[in-house]
Structures are given as C-alpha cells and as structure tokens.
Amino acid sequence: MPFPYLSPAQVRALRFPRRKSGRGYDPAQVDAFARQIADALAGRLVLRPEQVRSVAFTEIAGGYEQRAVDEFLTAAEHQLRSGHVPPTTLQTGDALLAVKLPKASNGYDRGEVDAFLGRAAAALDGRGRMGAAEVRHTRFSTTSGLRRGYQVRAVDTLLDELEQELRFRGR
Prior knowledge:
Largest sheet: 2 strands, antiparallel
Radius of gyration: 18 Å
Order of helices and strands: HEHHEHHEHHEH
Helix content: 40-55%
Low-confidence stretches: none
Number of helices: 8
Structural class: mainly alpha
C-alpha cells in the first residue's frame, strides 16, 4: 500500500499530481472529499468506508491523476474500516509546548492559546483531564491591528494533531 496510516493534518496537506494531457478527476471535488476524510479521521464526522469506495468524481482536462487519487482512497477506506488512529509526535507536554507557532497580525489571541496549550500539556503528562471533544470545540478570540496573535492555520493544525493524540489515547 503506497499510503501509510494518515493523520487528519497529513490528509489536509496532500497534493495530487495533475494530468499533463487528457482528463483527470476534478481537483475541487477531490479536495472537498479529502477534507471530509480528514474530518472523519479526526472524529468530527461519520464517513463510512462504503462512501469512500463509491465516491465518483467528474473528469476534466488537466485534473488530478486518477491512479494517485484512487490509491489514496483505497488507503483511506482501509483506515476508516479499521478505525486506526495513529499516534502523533505530541507524546509529552514538553513536545506540545516546544511547537513554535508563527505570529500574524490577524490571528488567535496568544494569551488564550498559551493558556489552553498549558492545560493540554498537563493533560498529556497525566496531570489533568482533557478529551478530544474539548479540543475540537475550543474557540479562541482573534486579534487585529497592533496586537499580533498566532497564525490561525498553524494553531488549527496543532489542534488537529492534539485531538488525534488524545483520540489515540482513548480520550
């Protein structure tokens, strides 16, 4: 199998090669379905393996190479069927706190994010309780103007990984 078990963040970051000539799968349709697979792997929605097996995409000129997409879908179907949640690199609180989040003028409030990550680090080290659902439902205020926050996409990616680690641990 060309794809190992994938994390939701890895699925979101996947890029498929495009056909140089001929027709391939519509990139917008494939990307939208890949986001659904990522959400299913993160436990945010239910996607049955049969839905992955039966998905059909429109073919357009210059679309994604069908073989690459089909191999990914086969791997995703297998992973959804097995229910496997792979571990992450966030195995300790120190590993979580060591992640350097880039700053942005329009981002998440750094104080709120830092406080949440402190609680999450304690939970990873067994000094507190936090479940995947709490991570999924966490919301942060945003900053603008002179107050710089953390880059939204970077924080969301880190939260995806944290949620996956907690699911891997059965929380």
